[in-house]
Amino acid sequence: MNAGLLLVLLALPAAAAHTYPIEPVTAVLRVEPDRVVADLRTDSVFWLEEVTGVNPLPSTGWPEQALNATEAYVNAHFRLTVDGARVPGKLVDARYRQLPTQVHEQGLFILRLTYPPVPDGASLSLQADFFEEFRREELEEFGGRLPPQHVGKFITRASIPGRKRLSAVLSSQAAPLAFTAADARRTALGRALESAGAGALSLAGSAAAWPALIALALCLGPAAPGRGRPAAWAASLLAGWCAPLPAPVWLPWAAGLAAGAAVAPRSNAARAAASAAALAALARVWAVDARPWLPRGAPGALEASLAGLGALIAAAAVLAALWLGVRAARRGLDAVSQSRAEHIYARRLSLAKTVLMIVCGYGLWQSLSR
């Protein structure tokens, strides 16, 4: 029995080497005046192991080998047809995102492909069968049935926002999604909402900026901020958004250090200057992150302005929620000890500042060392 158990344990790594967690792919196709755009979001494990061949993979700036392999794989399994002819896409943006709770190959691939423009009268169809080779291997291995954890996972959820909202679940067994270019084109309102959404999503997608946002909420303190504080912060966001400057990967961590330094300083002027600098840096990061995702077909200044408005609204909502949390925590201390509440709050504020500075310092060091 012990020998049999040993053989099973030795065989597990070999079996697991070709078993990957599979999640459905999400695809959004947009027909724009001067191009067609496909945005894909997909779980990273299979792609890292079977497609790119590069591990660890940087969040952006992928090696050419990884970009070429990813583009070839997408074109083989995500097929756009225009008037009966296959049209290959060009990979113009590729990103890899990991949440703090994710380890090893876990994470998210965010891919953007572009295709040549199409006339209004064109007939298009979309077909997808991602991970099809792996699905066939599992069917063969498990006697024609997929393992329970993979049932219903080999699909692509495709949507086409346009004058008519189109959507379909695509797979190797499903019929292609057919539509016309005229139906897929968005209205002016749709493009405006997409621009604002790109700005808001740039904030949500920049995990390195969240320590800075937490520090800025601590800078506000438990009391209601003065009338001039929101206006000054909005001006800082605007200045950072409009500044024609690059946004290196270490910038959000530097913003976090600046915001952390603004938590409970001796001088109000120092707090105002540090928090304004942090917000301007964050706005620059969000502006650069949002720009590739803005829709075409509208004046560039209008798109950028709407994206900035979306980022401003999102930042205000996040800061307001964090500030309400700080305020609730401070009021909760009164229930513990009204006489010592201020002292306890000051100590916790100092501890939070120390933790944020350590996190941002480590992030900055990691970014500079890459």
Concise structural overview:
By secondary structure, the protein is an alpha+beta fold.
Description:
It is a single chain. The protein is α+β, with helices and mostly antiparallel strands and 370 residues long. The chain has two domains: 20-185, no CATH class; 190-369, no CATH class. Helices cover 53% and strands 16% of the residues. The protein contains twelve helices and ten strands. β3 and β4 (85-87) form a beta hairpin. α6 crosses α11, α7 crosses α11 and α9 packs antiparallel against α12. The protein is globular. It starts with a helix and ends with a helix.
Q: Helix proportion of residues, in percent?
A: 40-55%
- Helix vs. strand class: alpha+beta
In total, the number of domains comes to 2
C-alpha termini separation: 50 Å
Largest sheet: 6 strands, mixed
Give the strand line-up of the largest sheet. 5-6-2-1-8-9
Beta-strand content bin: 15-25%
Q: Indicate the overall shape.
A: globular
Low-pLDDT residue spans: 1-17
Taking all residues together, what is the mean pLDDT?
A: 85
Total number of β-strand segments?
A: 10
**Radius of gyration over all CA atoms, rounded:** 25 Å
Note the run of SSEs as H and E.
Answer: HEEHHEEEEEHEEEHHHHHHHH
Number of helices: 12
